[in-house]
Amino acid sequence: MKVYISVDIEGVAGINHWDEATKTHATYPEFRALMTAEAIAACKGAIAAGASEILLKDAHESGRNILTEDLPDCVRIIRGWSGHPASMIQDLDDSFAAAMFIGYHSKAGSEGNPLAHTMRLSVDRILLNGTPVSEFVLHSYAAALHKVPVVLVSGDQGICADVKALNSHIGTVAVSQGIGRSTTSIAPRKSRQLIEAAATAALRGNRDACQLTLPSSFTLDILFNTPVNAYAASWYPGATHIGNRTARFETTSYFEVLRAIKFMLNA
Predict the structure, then answer these.
(1) In what order do the strands lie in the sheet with 240-243?
(2) pLDDT tens digit at each of 267 positions of the chain
(3) Residue 184 is part of a domain; what is its CATH number?
(4) Fewer CB within a 10 Å sphere, N or C end of the chain?
(5) Within this chain, do residues 110 and 222 fall inside the same structural domain, yes or no?
């Protein structure tokens, strides 16, 4: 069984501040190690459920955060960014039985994590068909293009609540809760125990029930923090500037949504 695991840092147990997620800051090594440990816990859980091949995507910022020395032998890791629109699930295809997202976080505009955002800090929020979405939604839909179910998500309570609202069959592990600029977190060792057990249970469970069905059409609205970014993004082919710091793109292809996000956020 092949399993894909995408790992971010803003939803790992204990993290609270952007300094801790920033490679050049003195506090980063501690949280890099915690991110690595949660990734390994998910790998161990997947292996216990029968995974013989795991593709691990380091999906935070530089893509060069996870410490590789202690990864299980069946793991291959993607470091850095290719530039492909699939972004945080680069190289996922229909050969995978399932995907898991570890260390994910609340969406931009929400209050479940002081590090809440969606893709870029320049973005106030991203909406699909009028609904604000997280990086979990964006990449779960991308996995659905290949008929690969996302079976487990770990992170803050806000993202876990959003996961259950979208599909109650997807497993979740909530490791923290944001309150203003503060967070209340479980102990990192406990988070790893829960993630490992949940990964095994999710892969042994009804994976088909976790499969998402894509809408037939998409209206993508990217609301930026500043109007100049919205204006620049509106020059992407097919996009329009609808005012209120928002660029819009409409399509019937979810891959085109992913492509638009990639280039509009970098305009």
Answers:
(1) 131-132, 123-128, 218-224, 246-251, 240-243
(2) 999 999 999 999 999 999 999 999 999 999 999 999 999 999 999 999 999 999 999 999 999 999 999 999 999 999 999 999 999 999 999 999 999 999 999 999 999 899 999 999 999 999 999 999 999 999 999 999 999 999 999 999 999 999 999 999 999 999 999 999 999 999 999 999 999 999 999 999 999 999 999 999 999 999 999 999 999 999 999 999 999 999 999 999 999 999 999 999 998
(3) 3.40.50.10780
(4) N
(5) no
